[in-house]
Amino acid sequence: MLTIISGTNRTGSNTRKVTQNALDIAKALGVETDLIDLADLSSDFIHNQQYNGDNLPDWLKALQEKSLIPAHHFLIVSPEYNGSIPGYLKLFIDAISVYRLKECFAGKRAALVGVATGRAGNLRGLDHLSSIMHHIGCNVIPGSLPISKVTSLINKEGKLDQGTSDAIKVLIEKLVKA
């Protein structure tokens, strides 16, 4: 199974539009997929005891059971926030890594997509995210995809241009074969 993570809690974001396109592409390829959209999550996992697995909310444990533990692959789509990834994405990874970390991530594969309105496609953020994923035992495949000037690549219906869609398709195919 491929779990796709939309890496911001911002509703209606370009990241979510890119994520939806990736989800559609994966399904068209016949890949069993699941989606975690951080914009849909409750923020009750953010508290001063969040790093104690006993204090992880039941809904987050259930999310691990449904979307993380059964996954063999992850596609994480992250916007650029201040030259890196959103703090909310890091907090999410921190929260889910205190309870059943190895079952969620150890030895699994991930591909990363950066989203930015500027020229670099969140390259620095992808490097940071890659380091985080490696640290928790997830293998990031080579060839992360930085998407620059994303607003010029999405039409009014939220669909990506053909070149970007093709690049995402190649990345997903590479990931699920890894």
Could you explain the architecture of this structure?
With 178 residues, the chain is α/β, with parallel strands linked by helices. It has one domain (9-40, 64-165): Rossmann fold, CATH 3.40.50. The chain has helices spanning 14-28, 58-68, 87-96, 101-105, 123-135, 162-177; strands at 2-6, 33-37, 73-79, 109-115, 139-140, 145-147. Strands 1, 2, 3, 4, 5 and 6 form a 6-stranded parallel β-sheet that branches.
Number of H- or I-type helical stretches: 6
Overall pLDDT confidence: 93
Alpha-beta content class: alpha/beta
Helix content: 25-40%
What's the total number of strands?
Answer: 6
CATH class assignment: Alpha Beta
Could you say which overall geometry the principal axes of the C-alpha atoms support? globular
User: In percent, how much strand structure appears in the residues?
Assistant: 15-25%
Tell me the Rg in angstroms: 15 Å
Number of domains: 1
Order of helices and strands: EHEHEHHEHEEH
Main beta-sheet annotation? 6 strands, parallel
- CATH superfamily caption: Flavodoxin domain
Give keywords.
single chain; 178 residues; alpha/beta; 39% helix; 16% strand; globular
Short description:
This protein is an alpha/beta fold. The chain has helices at residues 14-28, 58-68, 87-96, 101-105, 123-135, 162-177, and strands spanning 2-6, 33-37, 73-79, 109-115, 139-140, 145-147.
Topology record:
Blueprint: E1 2-6, H1 14-28, E2 33-37, H2 58-68, E3 73-79, H3 87-96, H4 101-105, E4 109-115, H5 123-135, E5 139-140, E6 145-147, H6 162-177
Helix pairs in contact: 1-6
